[in-house]
């Protein structure tokens, strides 16, 4: 679903930190959400916020277990 090159989207400059690129359309994506904001394709699992939350929880739990024992 490519948009027209004359659309507002192509000239708009966002201050958002975009660290991922959509595999389908090449759109620079934010961490938020499970879909590309441009073409709505599903993000890879490692591009989703839930993955990072789960990793953080695991690291915290391992650290706490190491401190307790």
Low-confidence stretches are none
Average pLDDT, all residues:
83
In terms of quaternary structure, the protein is single chain
Number of helices: 2
What string gives the helices and strands in order? HEEH
Count of discrete structural domains:
1
Please identify the structural class as seen in this structure.
mainly alpha
Based on CA atoms alone, the radius of gyration comes out at 17 Å
* Percent of residues in β-strands: 5-15%
**Which range best describes the helical content: under 10%, 10-25%, 25-40%, 40-55%, 55-70% or over 70%?**
25-40%
Q: How many individual β-strands?
A: 2
Quick one: overall form?
elongated
Q: What composes the largest sheet?
A: 2 strands, antiparallel
- Widest β-sheet, arrangement of strands: 1-2
State the separation between the terminal residues, measured CA to CA. 54 Å
Can you tell me about this structure?
The structure is a single chain. The chain has one domain. Helices cover 35% and strands 6% of the residues. The protein has helices spanning 8-11, 49-68; strands at residues 20-21, 28-29. Strands 1-2 form a two-stranded antiparallel ribbon. The longest helix is centred in the C-terminal third of the chain and has 20 residues, at 49-68. The relative contact order is 0.13. The chain crosses the membrane at residues 50-68. Keywords: Membrane, Transmembrane, Transmembrane helix.
């Amino acid at each position: 679903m490519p948009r027209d090159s004359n659309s507002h989207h192509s000239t708009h400059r966002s201050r958002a930190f975009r660290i991922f690129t959509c595999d389908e359309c090449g759109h620079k994506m934010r961490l938020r959400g499970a879909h590309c904001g441009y073409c709505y394709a599903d993000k890879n699992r490692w591009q989703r916020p839930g993955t990072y939350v789960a990793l953080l929880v695991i690291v915290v739990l391992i650290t706490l277990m190491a401190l307790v024992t």
